[in-house]
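Recall the central idea of this unit: under ordinary conditions, the amino acid sequence of a chain determines the structure it adopts. In this exercise we apply that idea directly, starting from the sequence alone.
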Amino acid sequence: MTHDTDIHLEWSGPLTLDEARACNGDGDWGVYQIYGLHHTYGSDSLLYIGKAEKQYFGARLSQETWWEYGADPKRMSVYLGRLAGEVAPDNDTWDRHIDLAERLLIFVHRPAWNAQANIRKFDAELQHVHVFNWGAYRHLLPEVSGARWSSRLDTVKKWHVFRNDETRIPRQIPK
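Accordingly, the structure predicted from this sequence is:
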């Protein structure tokens, strides 16, 4: 039996791009989201979801250059999501959780500047993942489930809305 992987992210922000690039200390890794101008979707759109798993947020964000092409970087806002929970995982689990959370969040929210063309190939890995967003998670859903957003439930063959005559115990409807 496959067990579910629950991933909790504690979000902070908004930060300017320069403030986020300065996040190079202990605990400054995880998933990030960037909001700003998109010519089609408007001035306060979810543009990008990324990850910093083996480097700090500041280092990772300094490598990004896509916003130089019309996204108005002076008005962008950045939110940082750090892994949270009762017990810190080992390094391999930590990196895997960051990777899974980023992929599921991209798949569900479809940010304007992320490329989702090949995200379906990871479907099987995401089927039992739940991401819980806490704190300043902005426009993200508070919880996303691989069970809901993957093909996990596609195999349900006899899906239908239940009717009262299908139940074993007749229901009494109050008058």
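The chain has five helices and six strands.
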